[in-house]
Design goal:
single chain, alpha+beta, 56% helix, 32% strand
Length: 73
């Protein structure tokens, strides 16, 4: 559980740092025989910083602390 907690803390901090994912893809607009027209479409996927990152950090801290208490008892 301690390892999972550390992973959650790292992922939560990563959410605060990166704040989203941006990607570009080609989309076909027109295709008539040998003529093909495409356009590049940018897509930005962002998530709620405090909801995703905060919950991950808090859950990770809880798991790390629970692992320490379990190990010392």
């Amino acid at each position: 559980m301690k390892t999972i907690g550390i992973i959650l803390i790292i992922l939560g901090i990563g959410v605060f740092i990166f704040q989203g994912i941006r990607s570009t893809r080609k989309e076909k607009v027109l295709d008539i025989g040998p003529v093909e027209i495409t356009k590049q479409v940018e897509r930005s996927d962002s998530w709620q910083l405090y909801a995703g990152g905060g919950i991950a950090v808090v859950a990770g801290l809880i798991l790390v602390l629970a692992g320490k208490r379990k190990g010392t008892a």
